[in-house]
Amino acid sequence: FFLMIRRPPRSTQGVSSAASDVYKRQVLHRSEYSGFSNLQSLLILTAIKTEPSRVMDYVNRLDNYNAPKLAQKALEHDLNEEALAIYTKFGNNEEAMDVLLTKIKDLTRAALLAEKLAQPSLWSKLGQGYLIAENVEEAIKCFIKANDPKSFMLVIGSAERQGKFEQLIDYLVMARQKLKDSQIDGALIYAFAKCKKLTDLENFLAQANSANIEQVGDRCYDEKLYEAGRILFNQIGKLGKFASCLVNLGQFQAAIQAAKKADSPKTWEEVNLACVKAKEFQLAATAGLKIIIHPDRLEFLINTYEKYGYWEELIKLLDSGLALEQAHNGIFTELGILLAKYVPTRLMDHLRTYFQKLHITKVLKACEENLLWKEAVFLHYHYAQHDSAVAIMIDHSPSAFEHDIFVQNIQKVTNSELSVSYTHLRAHETSLHLVCRLLLEKKKN
User: 409 and 374 in contact (C-beta within 8 Å)?
Assistant: First the structure.
């Protein structure tokens, strides 16, 4: 038999290299086939796979090959510069820009390409690249050159995060010419506010716009942009917030006028509090008189004045409130409590004049806490609490006992032990009086 010896197969690399040599002879040596598109494409394709260092030379020397497919193949083999050269040579400018931005990642070269070709689509792509790189200032310049507002949400978010409000205004002015959108208008108002361009803001509001002005106003208010907030809330008639902005700006007189239009207890409270803090007591009283007519708001007002130690102004305010048509029992009661705490010499007159309009339990508690026993007896007597009146006169006889009042009450007590207690008290006081007299006589002798 014959021994069969098989030849080993040629390597793929060897086949490719041989093919490459054939393509070179046919294409590069100016044969009759050198201009054939298929041969040029095969030569470059083979080089991409086997001789990547020669690809750039072939790309530049040849000019009749399938550029889109070969550029894509070059990208698949990480030959980014070669792909860029192919796209640039054949005028595929947008694809060239994509390679610079996403593969080579060179914004400087991308900017040079955009400047050279001056095509809106390239400026738009470059703007996107700058956005990704968090360089919103350059991104805005590109979008303006492209007259392209499509990425307005990304631009607004990025510019606000980076504090580029001046540049954002330029962008949004351009965007408004191309698109009608409430978010564009709202962002422009906010940018005017952040840049303190209040005249521009007022001029903008005088024109037709689709912004949610209240929403932007709330945002300005939360960020203490009160001048802008004042303009915005006044524009839409939100008088409570308008007054609040004036208060925070220290424009108290104007705040009072705005609060009168709003006529809201919450607004009056805010104005009153600010005026109290600023020691604008006359204006605070104007606001306060609008608050005290609401029983559920009275405690807040009292706490405000007492917190800052302005009890005298508070008493003046409640005194003024007694004459109001809407005056209620709470005003008379709280004034009584304040007099017990701060001006006890006035309390008895207040009780005698207004005892029928008082919440007796509250005022009695204040009298007891401040040891005002005569006043406490007066209240118990006038509310037919005779046992309590007598008990106080017995327990606190040096300051609380008055014979005529005691006689009037003792006849109406229901607790007989009080009479016994009084008898013991009188006996003790009589004995004490006699001892004192004897001591005095002895001292004289």
Answer: no
Cα end-to-end span (Å), the chain? 171
Model pTM score: 0.76
Which comes out higher in pLDDT, residue 47 or 13? 47
Residue 171, C-beta contacts closer than 8 angstroms, at least 6 positions apart = 140, 143, 144, 149, 152, 155, 159
| CA 167/CA 159 separation, integer angstroms | 8
What is the pLDDT confidence band of residue 14, given thresholds at 50, 70 and 90?
A: very low
Q: What is the pLDDT of residue 33?
A: 52
Helix axes 329-342, 360-369, angle to 10 degrees: 10
Residue 265 CA from chain centroid, whole number? 23
**Residue entry with tokens 């001046």:** 166
Residue 199 has pLDDT above 50, yes or no: yes
Distance in angstroms (rounded) separating the CA atoms of residues 376 and 388: 9
List, in sequence order, the alpha helices (H) in 51-102.
55-61, 67-76, 80-89, 93-98
Any long-range contacts for 238-247 (C-beta under 8 Å, 24+ apart)?
A: 238/214, 239/267, 240/264, 240/266, 240/267, 241/217, 243/267, 243/270, 243/271, 244/270, 245/221, 247/271, 247/274
> Residue 16: what pLDDT?
54
Measured CA to CA, the distance from residue 111 to residue 120 in angstroms comes to: 13
Question: Residues 285, 313: contact at Cβ < 8 Å?
Answer: yes
Residue pair 230/257 in contact (Cβ under 8 Å)? The answer is: no
Mean pLDDT of the chain: 87
CB 269 within 8 A of CB 284: no
Q: Which of 79, 29, 31 is nearest to 53 (CA)?
A: 79
Alpha helices in 308-416 (DSSP H): 311-321, 329-342, 347-354, 360-369, 373-382, 386-395, 397-400, 403-410
Write out pLDDT tens, residues 212-253: 999 999 999 999 999 999 999 999 999 999 999 999 999 999
The one-letter amino acid at 221: Y
Contact 52, 77 (CB under 8 A): yes
Structure tokens at 334: 């709280």
Specify the pLDDT at position 381. 82
Q: Using one digit for the tens of pLDDT, what is the confidence trace for 320-369?
A: 999 999 999 999 999 999 999 999 999 999 999 999 999 999 999 999 99
The amino acid at 165: F
Rounded to 10 degrees, the C-alpha dihedral 24/28/34/39 comes to: 30
